[in-house]
Design a protein that fits this description.
The complex is a heterodimer of chains A (439) and B (388). Chain A is of the alpha/beta class. Chain A contains 14 helices and 17 strands. Chain B is an alpha/beta fold. Classes of the chains: A alpha/beta (439), B alpha/beta (388). At the A-B interface, helix 1, strand 4, helix 2, helix 3 and strand 7 of A face helix 1, helix 3, helix 4, strand 6 and strand 8 of B.
């Protein structure tokens, strides 16, 4: 029996403090050369796909633009279109908001990307519920939580109708008979639903994958249900073994209801990693990266998001001050709000007192260490074990450096995964659906 | 001074039967890569890429069920991005509709095209007046459009309130894009280790646009594009679009049918703007047998080709004569629409450019790395730069 195969994707470093810009090796977050470097590294490692996140408004803290983290990103699909020219096999997946786009236009852009990449397009479907982001859009406003998923579901159904509306053999392009499009091969879409009313014909032939790969990142009950019904890949935060196994079982269990098989939805937690020649080196490297990720100002900013008040008067290298959190309203906009801030503050305080931590040490402690730390052998083994134990089908790797943060992983960990028989030594198909073993 | 030369790419060429003479897979990247490489070898200023939010049709406002012509088009911004890494000097100017799209998305799409092409992006904003396209979005109801497309000289809808609104909205969309492109000052990214700040927030600015059709807060999520302001271009046949071009664009494409008409149009536009660059559009069939080639295509299509732009058939020498005559009427550049691809494009890139060069009016090599540079447009400072 062949070994269950690991799927791997490369996340372009994002705009939170996971991405370290203070390191001398940190390159541009916007120059195309950085995207080319990471994408080509991922393709050299035979990874399944390259992944871009999205944020449609710059984050704000205390009513001002957040200035401590990397900021400034391209429009995801446009940069993926360009990357299609410099890669051959690598899947190209972008996050695009279903709340602030229209199905006809976005379906068309995704179909274009699938054509131009010869079947390598993926779409991470996200929704937004904040009016803050809505201020950049015609549609404006926002939807409540339940409606967001209903709208996204209808959006996807409509996108599929559009993608499927041309007969697979629609294009004849036969100069002898003078037939370019076979008669009757372009169907008319008539959609009338709660959120969309669309009538007309699509502007593109069916794309190489038929439908681009659908990725979903929600974690709530509705989000999991949405993924079980619609997604090909789920991008989750559940990278730890036991937690991952529970999540994996839960989501895979939901598939039957939609007439789907377990292999038709790949579960890929987003994970970070730190490598070293010895376990000690790796641990030291991990600690060093954590220190870079939480500079003194960033530590204060984290504290402020939980405490809901200005904490800049307190030395981040000093102890947690004896002030109570202001629970009236949050100070952060443009990111997922922290739930139950009062409880979080109490937990943080208890931890700081128990371990005698400064503000910065506390934030380093509570904001999570790297998922995989160790020698390349250890990390390859852990990844394989997680996959074999059904804690995941693979991982979306989130490097902490742009653009070279994946180099060492590809050079040192990927060959070991290949030796274990857990990861492809070359691409066997041409489309992203091929790589993900989605039929 | 060099004559500016662009080509307009669409499907298999501007003759609806062109695909039958030289079959090409218009839905492959390879087709487009070959065309833009040819244009760049000819040292052309830029290529434009047509687009619309609906299927091509011979009817003004409905699908036509014709199966003997090219139907289907890529999103032009993504296609331009796909071509950017394959080229290094030529400008890339996709069409993107302003009517149903989000100005924020279009603005960051064009800014991103400028980043991936290292300063070679342009944009042709276009309105979509058709009721059939509005039904693809289902958010606005448009009156059925009794618009006669492709009539020589076009039809002036400047008085129509619906069309006036669409142009007003287009002007707002360009204004928003321009503000967003400026919303990050060039030196906004500071990476200051001492204070832990990646950006200087005082150099990021809210666009704060509020208009009749939409409002956009800003700032952009995309840092300032390499050109500062990518080049905005507009096709215009009448007073209202001339006004739109004069207020919003860097280049206007006009459609005179004679040197005299060219002179009149130039005069009218110069009354609106002294800076706007005026290009003339021409559909071209080139070579000794150009007229015969066009006649054969007309016969295949069952009708004589009609176009909003003048249709030229003749040798590159004759075309060069005409371009120089129109140039004397005040036309500064040309956007040639090849009748059939790749043939007429090759005639332009390998023949016409040589002819013009011999007459001392066309470049011998690319003199700039950005599209603004090729067009002689300076890189503007951010409009917000003085405020901080």
């Amino acid at each position: 029996m062949t070994r269950k195969q690991v799927h791997l994707a490369a996340h372009f470093p994002g705009v939170n403090n996971t991405t370290v810009w203070t390191d001398p090796r940190s390159g541009s977050q916007i120059d195309f050369a950085s995207f080319v470097h990471l994408a080509r590294t991922a393709e050299r490692g035979k990874l399944d796909f390259f992944f871009l996140a999205e944020g449609l408004r710059l984050r704000e803290l205390k009513g001002r633009i957040h200035d401590l983290d990397v900021a400034g990103r391209p429009e995801a699909l446009t940069v993926l279109g360009a990357l299609a020219a410099v890669t051959d096999r690598l899947g190209l997946a972008g996050t695009v908001n279903a709340t602030f786009n229209e199905p006809y236009e976005l379906a068309r852009r995704l179909s274009t990307l699938d054509h131009l990449s010869e079947g390598r397009a993926g779409w991470n479907v996200v929704t937004t519920s904040d009016a803050f982001t809505g201020e950049n859009f015609r549609r404006g406003g926002f939807l409540n939580r339940a409606d967001r998923y209903k709208r996204a579901g209808e959006f996807l159904r409509l996108a599929r109708e559009l993608w499927d509306s041309w007969h697979p053999d629609a294009i004849a392009a036969d100069p002898e008979t003078g037939t370019f499009v076979r008669p009757g091969a372009i169907g008319t879409v008539e959609h009338s639903g709660e959120h969309f009313t669309v009538q007309g014909r699509f502007t593109l032939p069916r794309s190489p994958q038929g439908r681009p790969v659908i990725i979903q990142a929600g974690d709530s009950d509705e989000g999991r249900e949405f993924a079980a019904a619609n997604a090909d890949v789920i991008f989750t935060p559940h990278g730890k073994l036991e937690d991952g196994k529970r999540f994996y079982a839960d989501v895979k269990r939901r598939l039957a209801k939609y007439g789907r098989e377990p292999h038709q939805l790949k579960i890929m937690p987003g994970v970070t990693f730190a490598l070293g020649d010895t376990e000690e080196d790796a641990a030291e490297n991990a600690a060093y990266i954590r220190c870079q990720q939480v500079g003194p100002q960033t530590a204060t900013a984290f504290l402020e998001q939980v405490w809901g008040r200005d904490m800049s008067a307190y030395d981040p290298e000093g102890p947690l001050p004896d002030v109570e959190p202001d629970l009236s309203e949050g100070v952060s906009q443009g990111r997922v709000p922290i739930k139950d801030r009062g409880d979080v503050a109490a937990k943080w305080r208890a931890l700081a007192e128990e371990k005698g931590l400064s503000i910065r040490e506390l934030v380093i402690e509570v904001t999570g260490r790297q998922t995989f730390i160790g020698t390349p052998e250890t990390v390859a083994r852990l990844i394989d074990e997680h996959v074999q134990a059904d804690a995941a089908d693979g991982f979306i790797l989130v490097p902490h450096l742009t653009p070279g943060g994946l180099d060492e992983f590809v050079d040192r960990v990927v060959p070991l995964l290949q030796e274990r028989g857990a990861f492809r030594t070359d691409y066997t198909g041409t489309t992203l659906r091929d790589h993900l073993e989605l039929s | 001074m060099t004559l500016h030369l662009a080509v307009a790419l669409d499907g298999a060429g501007w003759h609806p039967a062109a695909w039958r003479e030289s079959p090409a897979d218009v839905f492959s990247a390879r087709h487009w890569a070959g065309l833009v490489a040819e244009a760049e070898q000819g040292l052309l200023d830029f290529v434009t890429i047509e687009d619309a939010l609906g299927l091509q049709s011979t009817l003004p406002d409905a699908p036509d069920d014709r199966n003997d012509q090219v139907r289907g088009r890529f999103d032009a911004v993504l296609l331009a991005a796909r071509l950017a890494p394959l080229t290094s000097r030529i400008g890339l100017v996709p069409t993107a509709t302003t009517t149903h799209t989000e100005p924020f998305h279009v603005a960051i799409g064009i800014a991103t095209l400028d980043h991936v092409s290292q300063g070679r992006a342009g944009w042709r904003p276009q309105i979509s007046p058709r009721a059939s396209e509005a039904r693809h979005f289902g958010r606005r109801e448009f009156p059925p459009l009794d618009l006669v497309l492709n009539r020589p000289g076009g039809v002036d809808l400047s008085g129509d309130p619906h069309v006036r609104d669409l142009f007003a909205e287009a002007a707002d969309a360009v204004e928003v894009a321009r503000r967003l492109w400026d919303s990050w000052e060039d030196d906004a990214e500071i990476r200051d280790l001492a204070t832990g700040r990646f950006i200087d927030r005082d150099k990021l600015h809210y666009a704060d646009f509020a208009g009749r059709f939409f409002s956009v807060k800003g700032p952009s999520i995309t840092p300032r594009p390499p050109q500062g302001q990518p080049v905005v271009t507009a096709l215009a046949h009448a007073r209202l679009p001339y006004e739109f071009a004069a207020s919003s664009a860097d280049i206007v494409y006009v459609t005179p049918h004679s040197a005299e008409q060219a002179r009149d149009i130039v005069e009218e536009i110069r009354g609106l703007s002294a800076e706007l660059k005026i290009f003339a559009d021409l559909v071209v069939f080139l070579g000794e047998d150009a007229a015969r080639r066009k006649a054969r295509l007309d016969e295949l299509d069952g009708a004589e080709l009609v176009s909003d732009a003048a249709i030229f058939t003749g040798t590159v020498r004759e075309l060069a004569d005409l371009l120089l005559e129109w140039r004397r009427a005040g036309i500064q550049g040309f956007r040639l629409r090849p009748g059939a691809l790749p043939y007429d494009l090759a005639q332009i890139a390998r023949g016409l450019t040589v002819e013009l060069r011999e007459r001392g009016v066309f470049r011998h090599e690319y003199e700039a790395a950005t599209l603004r540079g090729l067009l002689g447009l300076p890189r503007p400072a951010s409009r917000y730069a003085d405020l901080s």
